[in-house]
Amino acid sequence: MIETQLLDNGISVIYPNWDAPKNVKCFITTRIGGVSKDKYQGLNLGSHVNDDPNLVLKNRSLLLEHLPSEPKWLNQVHGNDVVQIKDFNATLPDCDGAVTVLKKHTLCVLSADCLPIFFSNFSGDIVGVCHAGWKGLLSGVIENTLKSISNIVSPDSNSRYFSTLNVYLGPSISMPHFEVGAELKDAFLSHSRDKLTIDSFESSANPNKYLCNLRQLAIARLRDLNIERIWDSEICCYENPSLLYSYRREGLTGRFGSFIWID
Q: How many domains does the chain have?
């Protein structure tokens, strides 16, 4: 059973269960609450999915009641670019992740099957988030997020510092519902043939097709970078239609948000 909490304006959110410092705040929205209709029913936060723009703005304004600042709404392109936000008024390029040391500066990514990932250090003075679909995972969005975090501390700290980070995997599509081609399996295995990566693919009922475990691929990448403090929500978007949007389940649908900040 997925534990959610209903906020005072009718929005239902998921609070990650991970060992982040108390001054690191985060939550993940669901589709419960909000004013979007039809395929987008509920709290759709995506402005790029052909929903009524006025309803999306209303949904975002409802959310602002529970955030310390207007989020940095990234223009996500399923890539691997990650930005370090140093200025509240910074103009962001196309990117799929962000990190910051600024207090009360809300970072977020939107998703509807792709994997949102939270990052925090032990002292709670650095946070980050990235949007990791298969394209981002394959091209290094996790590695670039960690590189951006380590560059805040010291460019040469890398693996030594990574072992002190906390990481949380939010809701994404699960293996039984994510079929991919052989070329994608081969691409991941050409990067690494560790057991976790190999076991992330199982033959499906269709020729030359495989079921893909997106979450396990992310964990394999994280462990390869010396990160062991990983918490996995194990929540599947596809299997929870009343709670979460899923692009692969519905095609035309909304986006939920994953938000993190330093209090």
A: 1
Tokens of 135: 């394209």
Q: Burial code of 149-183, b = ≥16 C-beta within 10 A, e = fewer? A: bbebbeeeebeebbeebbbbbbbbbbbebbebeee
Tell me the C-alpha distance between 239 and 42, whole Å: 17
The per-residue pLDDT for range 48-71, each reduced to its tens digit, is: 999 999 999 999 999 999 999 999
In a domain, 185, yes or no: no
Query: Between the CA atoms of 126, 146, 212 and 13, what dihedral angle is there, to the nearest 10 degrees?
Result: 10
Q: What is the DSSP string of 124-139?
A: SS-EEEEEE-HHHHHH
Give the strands of the sheet with 209-212, arranged side by side: 179-181, 209-212, 201-203
CB burial class (10 A; 0-12, 13-18, 19+) of residue 52? Answer: middle
Residue with tokens 């992310």: 218
Residue 71's closest CA among 23, 31, 127?
Answer: 127
Which residues span the domain enclosing 87?
5-172+228-262
Surface-to-core class of residue 215, CB atoms within 10 Å of its CB (0-12 exposed, 13-18 middle, 19+ buried): buried
Burial tier of 107 (Cβ tally within 10 Å: 0-12, 13-18, 19+): buried
pTM of the entire structure? 0.96
Q: Which residue has the tokens 């299997």?
A: 239
- The string of pLDDT tens digits covering residues 133-159 is 999 999 999 999 999 998 887 666 566
Round the CA-based radius of gyration of the chain to a whole number and report it: 18
Compute the distance between CA of residue 34 and CA of residue 54 in angstroms, rounded to an integer: 12
CATH number, domain of 113, equals 3.60.140.10
d(CA 92, CA 82): 10
